[in-house]
Amino acid sequence: MGPYARTGLAGIVSCGVLFTAVLIGRPDGTGNDENAKDERPQPGPYVALGDSYTSGPKIPRQSGTPAGCDRSDHNYPAVVARQLGVTAADFRDVSCSGATITNLTAPQKTSNGTNPAQLSALSTRTRLVTLGIGGNDIGFGSTVTKCVTMGAMYRATGSDRLFSDDAPCKKQHVDGGIDEVAQKIQATGRQLSAALVEIERRAPKARVYVVGYPAILPAEGKGCGRELPLAPGDATYLHDKGKQLNTMLRGQAEAVGATYVDTYSPSVGHDACSAQKTRWIEPLRPSSPAAAVHPNAHGEQSMADAVLRAIGD
């Protein structure tokens, strides 16, 4: 999601991605409508849209242009394309680290080149679309950065010496019962709704899967040590915001008669605070080639598996 190079957190959420998988397609039953989607999913042409949770920053091998988008040939779109037998000519990965929903319809400047508006890759020939986005729109990366900073202070001062509870960062985002992150999630939902309509307009025969985000943090804030210093209550708060983001993505999918594909459930127990051998999301200091607080190759594979299951259902 957010530009990880600036924070060392790799545009957390990020990416996004961020993300959730929805299927849009309602055959009219006549077989004669030129714009009706095929009843059987076609392997391609396939277009992958999204943020850094889609592009896979620092996962070998980095490929594609512009280089600033940090795309890996082992990110989940690449795995899906290979598994489905989509030819290189029929596969376009235009995902980009730091992308927001705005960058679906407007160019995105990166540290190394400009990525064209992602929806420009769509056409009436497109048969498959995956979309993983939303984390950067809610500012998840900057929120985690702030919470990590406060978490380090919380741990260094012996917790209760400086802070009155175990969620000091949450207090910065919730005032008088109003949660500013929750408000951003609602606003992002409205943007996503419009984006899904535009995707269907540009690629009327495509089946569209909106890919949501895996479990970045544990549900109860346990096990997050020096590798990801968070106060226990803040780890729980951030985990809950991630789930709320996915819930919003599910809701937008269902609103257009789509099928939601869950990438969160299979990733439980493989978050950034889990053991090195089992984690699919890397902590602040990655032990596998990946950006901080982003999926490693195992995480991208698990997301690809979730998308493939959805396509096969």
Write a structural description.
- With 313 residues, this protein is an alpha/beta fold.
- Helix content is 32%, strand content 10%.
- The chain has a domain at 46-138 and 181-217 and 240-312: 3-Layer(aba) Sandwich (Rossmann fold), CATH 3.40.50.
- A four-stranded parallel sheet has the order 4-1-7-10. The protein has a two-stranded antiparallel sheet with strand order 2-3.
- α3 (76-84) packs across α8 (297-312) and α6 packs parallel to α7.
- Keywords: Disulfide bond, Hydrolase.
Treating each run of at least 4 consecutive H or I residues as one helix, how many helices?
8
CATH topology of the domain at 46-138 and 181-217 and 240-312: Rossmann fold
Count of beta strands: 10
Question: Taking strands numbered 1, 2, ... along the chain, how are they ordered across the largest sheet?
Answer: 4-1-7-10
CATH superfamily of the domain at 46-138 and 181-217 and 240-312: SGNH hydrolase
What Rg do the Cα atoms give?
A: 19 Å
Assign the CATH class of the domain at 46-138 and 181-217 and 240-312.
Alpha Beta
Based on the coordinates given, report the CATH architecture of the domain at 46-138 and 181-217 and 240-312. 3-Layer(aba) Sandwich
Write the layout of secondary structure elements.
Layout: H1 4-7, E1 46-50, H2 52-55, E2 62-63, E3 71-72, H3 76-84, E4 91-93, E5 108-110, E6 113-115, E7 128-132, H4 140-156, H5 170-173, E8 174-175, E9 178-179, H6 180-202, E10 207-210, H7 232-255, H8 297-312
Parallel strand pairs: 1-4, 1-7, 7-10
Antiparallel strand pairs: 2-3, 5-6, 8-9
